[in-house]
Amino acid sequence: MENEKKKVSILIPCRNEAQYIERCIQNIYDFEPPYKGFEVIIIDGMSNDGTRDKLLKLQEKYNDLVIVDKPKKTVPHAMNLGIQLAQGEYIVRTDVRCIHPKNYLQDLIHLSERTGADNVGGVLVPMAGTTYIEKSIALAYKSPIAMGGALRERGNFVGETDTVYGGFFKRERLLEAGMYDEEMVRNQDDELSFRLRKMGGKIIQDSHIKIQYYPRKYYRHVFKQFLQYGYWKVAVIKKHPQQASVRHFLPALLVLGFITFTIAALFHRYAFQGLLLYALSYFVPVSLESFRLAYKADIKLWLGIIAAISLIHISFGIGFLLSLVCRLLNIKPKFFETLSR
Fold this sequence. Notes:
Blueprint: E1 8-14, H1 21-29, E2 38-44, H2 51-61, E3 66-69, H3 75-85, E4 90-93, E5 98-99, H4 104-115, E6 119-126, H5 132-141, E7 158-160, E8 168-170, H6 171-177, H7 188-198, E9 203-213, H8 219-239, H9 246-265, H10 269-297, H11 302-329
Helix pairs in contact: 5-11, 8-11, 9-10, 9-11, 10-11
């Protein structure tokens, strides 16, 4: 298999992405191929929205496109299936909702070989849709108070970080690390990156590698997404306590504060004043940050951005607190065991 040594295996976990799947596959097959090319493996979680029909048509056009079923319908299970089937020296995960630059693979190979890192990647650039809500959510994603470094443009930053979008690994190193933890329905990238760093590896991000990302279209979908992120962050922290930082706990403390002041306000009028002061101490900074973002784009989006940033924080905090309660009571809600769309 010497002639396969330099091939990159592109793994795409997918479920019910009929709107984006054709654009995704076309984008990937437009990549500038590295030495000895690449293979594409899409792992479909039993899609029932027409995604599978489109994949089969795409397979007629790209006859080397591999389609694999993932009965468990979760990303880490999909990735592990793909890793075991992959023939490439390198493994890269791409998401259906992203558009990658044509030289994506070549840039990642160069970054990996130059730094010797176990995992390398670029930054996500949120793309605004056409509606008021879509534009507001995309701008909120660009805020440093809303999202971590992997989901933000960071100027000319090149260096070590906690995790990166997608991930670009040497396959042998992934196998050595034990691949993805299939118990992590969400936050599996964080958990894997921490394990690699614990093994002495580095995670390197290059902000010059920019990937276009299309966020959720509706506030309710953002709420579900970050509710799950918060819920599963507790599992990561429980497994790797050293990975925890203050920022992981702040959304839960925010929500806990609102709950405490609201309950107290039912019994004491001064507590209601405390609730107002507490709300102002949160919403004033969020409003100022939202104004900064809206001023650069469209001032009419100001309220929409406030709603999106607040929703990200509050839903993550609720998910975090629910996870603590569920673990205390030893229950596993079905909603959190599968991905929501």
